[in-house]
Design brief:
This protein is mostly helical. It has one domain: Tetracycline Repressor, domain 2 (Orthogonal Bundle), CATH 1.10.357.10. About 70% of the residues lie in helices and about 0% in strands. The chain contains ten helices and no strands. The protein has helices at about 10-30, 35-40, 45-50, 55-80, 90-100, 110-120, 125-135, 135-155, 160-170, 185-205. α1 packs antiparallel against α2. It is elongated, with a radius of gyration of 20 Å. One of its GO terms (biological process) is negative regulation of DNA-templated transcription. This is TetR family transcriptional regulator. GO terms for molecular function: DNA-binding transcription factor activity; transcription cis-regulatory region binding.
């Protein structure tokens, strides 16, 4: 039987992962030291080594857990909005708005971490990059492609390559289309951007 933790004693491994996410998202992989992560997590440096061999392994664990959580959330958004299509354009706009809302949710540190990864790709352990791509953007794109294929099978879209179509939709509703990420808090601006992106997508794919 698993031994229960005493009341009031947080899981040290999870505290380390949470602290590491905060530091990696703020300072990047190269600049975030294990000493600083230990201080952020409220543990000793030695405690980190009790759970992880080195910073690379810790980083890969952070990426894996954070990416899994975000991917699960986004796939739930896809399922909610595309499982049963009533009005395709409206449903796609609602999907885009819910998708972008994830960026400003309590999952926001993950996206700060991804910006750091993109800024220092050459310094990131290759295994961590592959893990992020496969379990994050790759998995989400595969799920979206499957939904678009189902919609096409019902006669609403003309799609030869669902994976490519999913990539197009993801790009067209991306926050990168906003002039400034601060605009994510401007509901009217976000709605206008997503609506324009969906309109462009349907111009190319609607039957």
């Amino acid at each position: 039987m698993e031994k229960k933790k005493p009341a009031g004693q947080p899981d040290k491994r999870q505290a380390i992962i949470n602290g590491a996410l905060t530091l990696f998202a703020r300072d990047g992989y190269t600049r975030a030291s294990l000493d600083a992560i230990a201080a952020e997590a409220g543990v000793s440096n030695r405690t980190i080594y009790n759970h992880f061999n080195d910073k690379a392994e810790l980083f890969q664990t952070v990426i894996q857990e954070s990416t899994q959580r975000v991917a699960d959330t986004v796939i739930d958004v896809i399922d909610r909005h595309l499982s049963k299509v009533v009005d395709l354009e409206t449903d796609l706009v609602d999907l885009g708005l819910a998708w972008l809302a994830v960026l400003t949710s309590d999952l926001a540190p993950h996206f700060a971490l991804i910006r750091q990864i993109n800024a220092e790709t050459e310094h990131i352990p290759p295994a961590a990059l592959r893990l992020w791509q496969d379990t994050g953007p790759g998995r989400v794109r595969r799920e979206l492609a499957d939904r678009l294929r189902q919609i096409a099978d019902r006669g609403h879209l003309t799609i030869d390559d669902p994976t490519r179509a999913a990539g197009h939709l993801m790009l067209l509703i991306s926050a990168d289309n906003l002039a400034d990420r601060a605009m994510l808090n401007d509901k009217d601006e976000v709605t206008a951007m997503v609506s324009a992106g969906v309109h462009a997508f349907l111009y190319g794919y609607k039957r």
